[in-house]
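Form 7-S
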Amino acid sequence: MSFRDAFEQSRLLTLVVLAAIGWTVFSAARVLGQFDYWNPEAYGMTPGAGIVGLLVMAAGVVLALALLGAFEHDEPAPETWPPENAN
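Output:
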């Protein structure tokens, strides 16, 4: 199944996954801009906490991309009915 076929069959799911990926990338950019690497504070958003958050968001994006990648596989494909080689 191609991505186009997946979009035609389940527009809502495809749009939700794409929106989630976009939101996660936007959130990761905001996290990168919120903490100071060179003058870390002992409380609040520390560089270590930000890096762990970015790793979790990256894992979520990878899983969402894997879901979208599963749309493009055509195996296992359903058998045709009635069978063409019926003897």
